[in-house]
Amino acid sequence: MLCLIKLDGIYKNCFKTLMLTLLTLCMLAGRGNAIKCFKCAVTIEKIYSYAKNATSFTPLCSKFDESDEYIVECPYSTMCLKTISTLYLQNNQQQTTATRGCAPQKDTKQVFNNGQWHQEHSVQEVYEEGCGQFTDNKISGPVKTHCYCRGNLCNASNHLHHVSLFATTLMTSLLIRFFVEFSEFKIYQRTFALKLKLS
Hints:
alpha+beta, four-stranded antiparallel beta sheet, two-stranded antiparallel sheet, GPI-anchor
């Protein structure tokens, strides 16, 4: 049932405001979980995990189809990465390859505590959203474009790194709307209370 508050002859729909607030809170809560990114490589990579006692394979980017096989969790990243490498060949030809994965933000330090050395991991915020180019070897090396983005699975393709900007804009709009409606509610409440006193 909709929550309708009658103030000075005007009905205010607080159900809409409540739903917008809950949506905003859900978006904020989701930011605390590990980000998920697409991961793929130029060649199949084998990675052995001692913790899981199993070998995992990184699938090929040349067969990338955004399926679950390509999704990984990134506990030590807050961003996803897509790297496009372009090698310029003779006769004005070029070869382009792409890789995807978690942005390398993990910082590991050796810490001495209680008479023992152990590793402490932290996440470093060292990248800005967007793309930048650099060349390994200025004479013959490939030109690499690194694109960093925030938001789950934002490294699918070139146009998707703007998804997080949309989410941020939506969240900001919802918050502004909530505060505007809340302010209007307070104004109507004061006006109604004042009319009650006068009558």
